[in-house]
Amino acid sequence: MQRPGKIICVGRNYAAHAKELGNDVPKEPLLFFKPPTSVISAGTPIELPPGSGRVDFEGEIGVVIGATLRRVDEATARAGIRSLIAANDVSSRDWQNNDGQWARAKGCDTFLPLGQEAPVPADLDAVTVVTRHNGVEKQRATGADMVFKIPFLLAHISKYMTLEPGDLLLTGTPAGVAQLAPGDTVEVELVGLSSVKNPVAAGR
User: Fold this and answer.
1) Number of compact structural domains in the chain
2) Contact yes or no for 71/186 (Cβ under 8 A)
3) Which residues pair with 196 in a beta bridge?
């Protein structure tokens, strides 16, 4: 896909992932942004930035917007989805913990591998996201496991900012995140829909 106009992300949207990092589940969606310049395609190396002590993979269900959504209800939001896409919200964990904002931790170049767009299935709760690290499955969850489901997230976000065609929503990562090292490979798959696989390299 072309670079999104904006990329809105949801933090701690799977209870088990919040727990594994020692965090509580938020009472309402925890939102942050990634810049469009973080986007890469399959096969492009994820570069580990100098100065970060730990960079993790985070496999996610990505939602591509297909209609202008402003202060809409959940049904309208659901109808406004263009496609789903496999996404990897690569994150510098030490910078995330140290910085008051997550712009640096989440926004580095190469920190958002995206797969191919896929048609929207009838049942969003049944979509399964799987992450494999060096060929070993580390994450598996479905849309049903989310604290806040996809239509609710879109409707909620549309209260505060207009979602436009081509914008991207990242819906949060399940438990099982782990550190990346040069020479690794990481693959995120929306089973039967979309996938993205990338090597990992040391950044300069």
Assistant:
1) 1
2) no
3) 188
